[in-house]
Amino acid sequence: MRCFTYKDKKYTVDALGYLLDPSQWDENFAEGMAPEVRIENGLTEAHWKVIYFIRNTFDKMNLCPLVYVACKQNDIGLGDLRKLFPTGYLRGACRLAGVTYREGYFQKNWIEEHIVHHKRMYDKKVYETDVYGFLVNCDDWDENFAVHKAYELKMPEYLTKKHWDLIYFMRNYYKKHGEIPTVYETCEKNRLELDELEKLFPDGYHRGAVKVAGLRDKS
């Protein structure tokens, strides 16, 4: 926990710069935090449109909207979003909006399609996860965890080769760089469009792909 100050106003944020109390948010916070997410020339109307969409969704539903929803509702593509928020959707747009994936977990919309049990089930094994279901120690991850987590998330299909390619890309990236790749990097390196990623991980990039890959932010 640390204090972030801009124009003589103080905000309490976590180690990653996320606002701990979403109700403390105001435009001043977003303007002051913008340079920390690599937006150097101020926030434009296009930035504010996305930021206020996130805020309005959170205010109405106590939910951090998925990147898929934010793009569709604001009629922008992944490339447009990347130009606006180069550090990522969660680490850029949502951070400026004072909201994180942690908010709204108990009100999240589950995928209603029935999921057939995976055949790749192993012997029972215990994994330590945090209150949001993320694996505490990424080194404890194995395919067994991924399969069970996918089933728990009610993903509408088996983990296919495309799923595994993304999962191992993310894990290898994390081992090399010590951080989770942004949704931009994951899509770009794997030649995926946003709608393709949505089909693979309907719960979202962070709440779905990152979680199944056994990764989490270091907060």
Structure described in brief:
The protein contains ten helices and two strands; from the N terminus they run ββαααααααααα. With 219 residues, it is mainly alpha-helical. The chain has two domains: 2-105, DsrC protein, C-terminal domain (Arc Repressor Mutant, subunit A, Orthogonal Bundle); 110-212, no CATH class.
List the helices and strands and how they pair.
Blueprint: E1 2-6, E2 9-13, H1 27-33, H2 45-61, H3 67-73, H4 78-84, H5 89-96, H6 143-152, H7 161-177, H8 183-189, H9 194-200, H10 205-212
Antiparallel strand pairs: 1-2
Describe this structure in words.
A hairpin with a 2-residue loop joins β1 and β2. By secondary structure, the protein is mainly alpha-helical. It folds into 2 domains: 104 residues, Arc Repressor Mutant, subunit A; 103 residues, no CATH class. It contains 10 helices and 2 strands; from the N terminus they run ββαααααααααα. Strands 1-2 form a two-stranded antiparallel sheet. The protein is globular.
